[in-house]
Write a structure and sequence with these properties.
About 40% of the residues lie in helices and about 20% in strands. With about 250 residues, the chain is α+β, with helices and mostly antiparallel strands.
Amino acid sequence: MIGQEMPGVSAPRAEDTRDRRFAATLAKGLRIMQAFKPSDDSLGNRELSRRTGMPPSTVARMTFTLTTMGFLQQLPSDSYRLGPAVMALGYTARANLSFLPMAESIMQGLADEVGALVALCMRDGEAVMLTRCWRPRDVSSLWLNEGYRLPLATSAAGRAMLAADGAGGEDDIAMLERQGYLTSLGGWNSAVNACAVAFQSSPGTAHLSFLCGANASDLDPGRLNQKVAPRLRDTVAQLRRGLGQI
């Protein structure tokens, strides 16, 4: 695997925890589920305690409750993995991305054409999460799967979202307006080059982004800027036309 995966646990902001509407117990349970990474087979209470920073006694109560409700499955080894209730929520969330069926063949075609990973990304706190990945057929690509998190501020996918919201750096905002995409040369990992295009499923919704990336040895700056990034921009525009947005 290239690089280090972003931690799966997003700590709540201090100002949120002081709000009387904040349900602290619910937050602890959600942090337990966030601690699981795509590469994890299972986790025990001790590891969950280490990843979340919560006391072992608290973790034990959370895992018991989550197992009872089907959000975790307890294995004979007394470790846990995500349960069917989490999977059901994931399927429901993906079904709500109504543009995905149209995007499937378009983005797979792009991945095959440029020989690089293509991914749909969503913001997750101070990270962006790969929600759907398309890999080029018969060509090796980045080992990044659905659920993998990239840093918001330094990845092409995150910077594209921030720039589209007007919250990014001036250079990123100007580049996105001028070219329709942002590029990253080793931004979050020195061995990875990538580009990204911001996308809204409908007006007024949160910005997502489509990412295209590969090992730097397979995607040099010239090819990234001259072919791959413009093709990603044009492919996203094709999707938007299909959705009647332009």
